Amino acid sequence: MKNKIVHIYSHTHWDQEWYFTSSRSRIYLFNHIKNVIRILENNDDFPCYLLDAQSALIESYLLWAPEDKDVLFKLIAEKRLLTGPWYTQTDQLVIHQESLVRNLWYGIKVATDAGSSMALGYVPDCFGQGGNMPQIYKQFGIHHALFWRGIADNTLRETEFIWQGENGDRIFAVQMPWGYHYGGLLDETPEKMATFLNEKMSPIEARSDRENLLYPHGFDQAPVRENLPDLVKQFNACDDEGHYQISSPLDFLEALEKESANDVRILQGELTEGKHSRVHKTIFSCRADLKLLNNEIESLLVNTLEPVLAISRSLGHAYPSKIIADIWKLMFYNAAHDSIGGCNSDDTNQDIFFRYKQARDLAVNLLELHSRLIAIRTQREHDYTFTVFNPLTNTAAPQVTFEAWLPGIPFTLRDSAGNALPYVIEEQTDLTSYVLNQTIRLNPGKPYHKPEKVYRTKVTVNSSDLPALGYTRWHLDFDADGASKRVTDNMMVIENAFYRMEVEENGLLTIKHKTTGKRYERQMLLVENGDDGDSYNYSPPRGDLIVTSEGCLASAHRENNGLNQSLLLDYVLKVPGNLEERAQGIATSTMKVAVHVTLQYDDIIRFTVDVDNQVLSHRLCVHFATDILANVSYADQLFGVVARPVQLSNALKVWEAENWHEKPISIEPMQSYVNLHDEKHGFTLHTNGVREYEIVGDNFDTISVTLFRSFGYMGKENLLYRPGRASGESVVATPDAQLSGPLSFAFGWRIYSGSFDEAQHARLSKSLLTSFPVYQDSDFLNGRLRFCLSDEQRTYPQEYSLLALPDGPEDALVSVVKCAEEGEGLICRFYNPNLNATATIPALNNARYVLLDEKTPSQERAALNPNDVQTLYVEIV
Predict the structure, then answer these.
(1) Residue 403: closest CA among 366, 452, 456
(2) From the CB of residue 457, how many other CB atoms can be counted at a distance below 10 Å?
């Protein structure tokens, strides 16, 4: 009797796009699935085939082959063609937590509707595994994971382990040490077969003393091996030790779990080691232009559009579920590990940009429509009325900037209670003829206000309290002029209740934190250096010239508009134009950087950085110095916070001698913030830009955030940070990845007193990344400019709040409020963003506790531990 069972799982890893475009991938996918159907239908001894766990592939195929729906669904229902649980093979480290959850939700939905979804966290090629994935998997009924990248053999010699999430949830997991493509080639020559099998199986058996072994058979865009069942028979005939069988990967994991019982090690948290499987840690900053689009649209969808649609449905409007699904699916295609990474050809990245444009345009217009549907049914007493929405579940008084069409005469802006609101006009353009010629009167006999002049106007307002998850009305009062005036001077100091900031002679900033009286010098240092890397890895040149903004301030002035105080700083950095100049220590080019530093009424220092980039193959970071000598940094991850060492000291000592595939660097990902703190105070940088940071300085006391990096090739060999072969295609030039032209970035810097948990960083990030829509309700705008709609009865109240939730440090943070995917309910998802403290879940009427799948009941609980997530399904009555 043979003492080993070798589970061969036959599969293809199907990249949606890469060095090839999505169009090429889809054409070949069509041909591939046709062949898979034919082979499975005609070969009963071919028990199953894995289609990369991406149900988007099924949807894509059926668009062109609807006639194959029945046979395809039959194979899926019989679990012969395996698909799900993913919609696409998504990244886990820099996409929004709601994007990952929806990816699984839609992936399982599509696969289940087709017959069956594979309950396996199958991730063959993503660049690292997120620390909270075990709990996310479990909440979708997935108790096993199989992946390649993220674990080194010095951490795990065997292949199987218990993976414990940051919240304590556990699943059974297996790493494929040599990847999903290890068995992609099979020698069919009879006289060589035994030797071939021994060469392949020996390393596998050396890593595992279990009876059940895994042999992955497939590779990128691999054709299905039609004669695999015959080959398996030949394997069994020539190997006296192993019994070979075609299995599903889940069958293998379940058998191995049963065999190993509790005799396995426990690994916790995120898995991002790159010793023998490259995780490309600096891919987080590749194609910063696309990363910024991704982050902007994710915030728009989760923080603004979905809550406003929940408000809209509660007032009686239909929820556009299919439109939302289409928008999310565009984002899922872009969230796939190559696509979001940007490690593609320029042609492919153009496709990615276009999907972002589609997703953003659909989201913006859907938001405008539902804002309008509410506004035109709300009681109105003034010709210039504005409906202002608050997508947050707590009252908020944000500073709001919006576009309005105004008559160009002085006015006071008043809220629903008649209170004057401070505002400033940023810009205005006379478009009278254009706008008034667009107006359409469906009832010409009905009087309406027609202004003499119409100016397209950009207005910034300090709002009064906006109702939680609801809306209110503002209007113009022309009896007085309430506009704030803009004053500009050459003073180099701004201050509010929290900070005093001044520009040093060398162009850097000194910040006085008024709460403690401490001064922090050398703030906001721009650091530019070369990038000899490629689309996968940042890597410094072997000969580099590092340039900073110190001493490069060309001009500066101060502006006070009555709402904010700002410093407008223009820097001109003398930098090398390319890698060749860097190697010679020559700087013949200039890089102009305009920095706008703003103090509002809160304790966030806001920065916008505009760069005119005409330089090749380089990186630009911004540094903020702290007084904390750090061993650990803190950042937000999926549904929680993660602590990371600032340096991988032990690994750095041995990586070259042990021939690691990548240098073990501590350039790390974040969702929206990075933090250093001690017991009494701390420093946080909040961003919606590139989600990449590093703790630098001789004492590891400085937070460095990447603004962008640029490079000229998809792949390069023998990088300083990544020795050996190229990742990707070294012959593919990527001139678009040089990011030539204007680039813009925004972030906030905060100094605080007290504990990390009391400072509520994730709550602040959510507020900063939430937009507050404003819709102008004026009759003269009904027409071609916006599309014409019929008059509606105005039955909605002037103020409305769907749901108000507590938002103190002890309260769980809302990840999203949205319409349920199925049914008429409201989904409220909470998580604990704290490092140590528990967080309270609010008591909601008509609510039931469910898992992330929105339907499976879960235990009721009053509080969440750190890194825990809980979904409530609220019936709207």
Answers:
(1) 456
(2) 18
Checking phi first, is residue 715 left (phi over 0); if not, alpha (psi -120 to 50) or beta? Answer: beta
pLDDT tens for residues 240-256? 889 999 999 999 999 99
Residue 466: DSSP 8-state: B
Residue whose entry in the numeric block shows the structure tokens 């709402």: 563
Measured in degrees and rounded to the nearest 5, phi and psi for residue 617 equal 50, 70
**CA 113 to each of CA 54, 69, 77, 116, 842: distance values in angstroms, whole numbers, following the listed order:** 14, 11, 9, 7, 34
In whole angstroms, give the CA distance from residue 758 to residue 396: 19
The burial class, CB within 10 Å (0-12 / 13-18 / 19+), for 56 is buried
Paired tokens of 446: 């009905």
Q: What share of the chain is helix, strand, coil (3-state, %, to 5)?
A: 25, 30, 45
Angle at 441 between CA 438 and CA 447, to 5 degrees: 120
Rounded distance between C-alpha atoms, residue 577 and residue 586, angstroms: 9
> Are 579 and 605 spatial neighbours (Cβ–Cβ below 8 Å)?
no
Q: What is the mean pLDDT of residues 13-32?
A: 96
* Other CB atoms within 10 Å distance of the CB of residue 57: 23
Identify the CA nearest to 352 among candidates 91, 343, 726: 343
What's the rounded Cα separation, in Å, for the pair 18 and 342? 9
State if pTM tops 0.70: yes
pLDDT per position as a tens digit, 49-99: 999 999 999 999 999 999 999 999 999 999 999 999 999 999 999 999 999
Burial of residue 190 (CB within 10 Å: 0-12, 13-18, 19+) is exposed
Q: Among 116-120, 121-125, 191-195, which stretch is predicted with the lowest mean pLDDT?
A: 191-195
75, containing H or E segment: helix 69-77
Tens of pLDDT, residue by residue over 607-637, are 999 999 999 999 999 999 999 999 999 999 9
Q: How many CB atoms lie within 10 A of CB 848?
A: 15
Tokens of 816: 């999203």
pLDDT digits (tens, 9 = 90+) for 672-724: 999 999 999 999 999 989 999 999 999 999 999 999 999 999 999 999 999 99
pLDDT band at 209 (very low <50, low <70, confident <90, very high): confident
R_g (Cα) of the chain, nearest Å:
29
Specify the DSSP class assigned to residue 303. I
User: What does the CA dihedral 862, 833, 84, 118 come to, rounded to 10 degrees?
Assistant: -50
